Amino acid sequence: MKMPTTWEGWASRVSLYVREGKKLLGEPRFPIRISEIAQDYSRNVFPGDPIVHVEGKNFAGKFEGALVPNDDKEWAIFYDTGHTSKGRINFTMAHELGHYLAHRHLSGEPFYCSRRDMWSWNSEYGRIEAEANSFAAFVLMPPDDFREQTRDFIKPTLAQFETLRDRYEVSLTAVVLNWLKATKRRAMLVVSKDGFVDWSRGSDALFRSGVFFKAKQCNLSAPSTRDV
Ligand SMILES: [Zn+2]
Fold it and tell me: If you measure from the C-alpha of residue 105 to the centroid of ligand 1, how many angstroms do you get, rounded to a whole number?
């Protein structure tokens, strides 16, 4: 079978594998847990250099996750045990699986992914990070189901996003960003830290309307330090 060469190709392939596999097993389609599929899937597709290990590791807040090879060309996915959110960990693992499928041939070097790297989409390295994020979003929140679930999101509330976060077992940030990507509405996610804007992301419709918001220059009157 011909192998995909892009993250989109891999995301569709993995998504189909999970959907059909769960149907055969008579299990609900969601949530999709990467820890349950990464090793079997990689062994099936790449028996010569599979993922053989998935483990939590104390990165002391420096990294969200990592994809690391050993001397036998086998790979391991690590995630930061400093986080308690299982959704955030699941998304990170999907991000690393995306690197494994779409990027590991690029250098053969380990990938260490920090939160800032994962969400900064401007540099060349950022492009690869963005692809891994897009892969993770597609696999965990497949477009067909996501469209259906957000059909009535006119002015979505936090509670509506939290319901989706639980459905897909991802982080709240991942759900909101996925919605911003697709919505025709003018909307923006602003994440603050210590009262200042840490980073923000707007929908395409917002930018088309000419609104621009520079991070780190706005002191928020109602700072939020929630872990999203
Ligand atoms: Zn990464």
Answer: 14
